[in-house]
Amino acid sequence: MAKRTTSTRTPRTTSARTETAPTAIPVTEHAARRERVMKALGSSVAVVFAGNEQGGHFSHFRAHPHFEWLTGISDEPGAMLLLDPGHPVANRRVQLFLKPLDPELEKWDGLREEIASPLKGRYGIATIFRTNAFPRWMLDSAKRAKSLTCLHPFAAHTAPVSPDLAVYREVASRIPACAIHDGTEIIARLRAVKSPAEQALMQRAIDITAEGYEAVLSTIRPGITEFEIQEAAEHAYRSHGSRGPAYGTIAGAGMNGTVLHYRANNAPLMAGDVVVLDSGAQFAGYAADITRTYPVDGRFTKRQREVYDIVLKSQLAAIAAVRPGATFGQVDQAARDVITKAGFGDFFIHGIGHHLGLEVHDITPNEPLKAGAVITIEPGIYLPAERFGVRIEDDILVTPSGRANLSAHIEKDADAIEREIRNRR
Question: Collapsing DSSP states into helix, strand and coil, what is residue 289?
Fold first, then answer.
């Protein structure tokens, strides 16, 4: 490995390599999250749904991120969480409902635990029922509170209504004066601010991603395919503690680098091309999301370098605009001003970034950035007529005084990238 001398790189100890790195959110933190949501609910009742399996036996189920954020449970299709902050019995203010055991089905899909002290202790929830008891206890809570609050994001009119609203409509039609309220911003605001434990897991996902990009720098050369770039990155993710990528890796060479969500990854890499690699590992449910643009043969052309430097300058301007109280519009404008001034305004065709967390495009509240948020900054210039695009993306933590680049150790200086690729051959 060539020694890095560029000043744009921030040396750090990679937490993915440390045995003391966190591997999960503590059960006490999930309990604290539920308490915060119930405080916001007041005396109203809410239900959060895990969702159901889709795609048949061979699909991978993952719970709705609201449910996972509140419980830490990602692998219980059909589960429901009932929050009833006004319940007179303290242990009944949080009720978890799990599908009944099915020994015949579980021979195929995996064994599940009975409801007993070990399960309650692991989830940190004292009251657990099977889902066939949900109608009874939902009715009990709704009759007393006469107030139901939607926490799931609302759906467009062309889609089915959100699962909590669908249930509430049925319940309210049977209980006079039972009101339905909009609480969709409650969890959005809370999830947008990452706790220290969440930040540590996200840093580990990013550090694992860095290992993938190191592998790509050692792999890239003319004659291989985009898939070999994808495989180099994703193999490194799994080799360093991730179960796999947080989303479908984009590895677009040449013209394909101008397609924002290119996914085929089957074209050969040609000398003179650049590759837009947009990929990130997932760790303990949390996502990394990084993009780098690499020259296939180890050297940018003069035109590629011109565009690359403009994108990098715009990204650094946007990162500098990140602080508590800033809006995405202000951060976007900082990048867009640089690109527009350089004459490429019509070729920056997307927004500057998004929140990052349990989802790659994590839920975004209707408010300015707060300390603890983790966002992506990813300007790009796409030139189909010239058959190449450039995008550079980092994951940025909003700090009380500004920002911290969590992925600064993934090289993006053009000279250093060229040296890295050439020196590895």
Answer: coil
Domain of 114, in residue numbers: 27-191
Single residue among 170, 191, 212 that ends a domain in this structure: 191
pLDDT score of 10 more than 50: no
Q: DSSP for 197-237? A: HHHHHHHHHHHHHHHHHHHHHHH--TTSBHHHHHHHHHHHH
**Residue range 73-102, pLDDT digits in tens:** 999 999 999 999 999 999 999 999 999 999
Pairing of strands 94-98, 127-130: parallel
The answer to whether residues 395 and 272 belong to one domain is yes
Helix (H, G, I), strand (E, B) or coil at 236: helix
| Tally of domains in the chain | 2
Instruction: Assess whether pLDDT exceeds 70 at residue 103.
Output: yes
**Quick one: how many helices (H) and strands (E) in the chain?**
12, 17
Residues 27, 33, 34, 40, Cα dihedral to 10°: 170
- Side by side, the strands of the sheet bearing 290-295 are 250-253, 274-279, 290-295
Same-domain pairing of 154 and 217: no
Per residue in 35-72, pLDDT tens? 999 999 999 999 999 999 776 666 688 999 999 999 99
**Is residue 402 pLDDT above 80, yes or no?**
yes
Does the residue 4 lie in any domain?
A: no
0.85 exceeded by pTM? yes
20 is a domain residue: no
Q: Verify that 181 and 199 share a domain, yes or no.
A: no
Q: What is the rounded distance in angstroms from the CA atom of residue 146 to the CA atom of residue 106? A: 38
Does 396 map to a domain? yes
CB 96 within 8 A of CB 34: no
Distance CA 165, CA 153 (A): 10
Q: Can you name the residues that pair with 398 across neighbouring β-strands?
A: 403
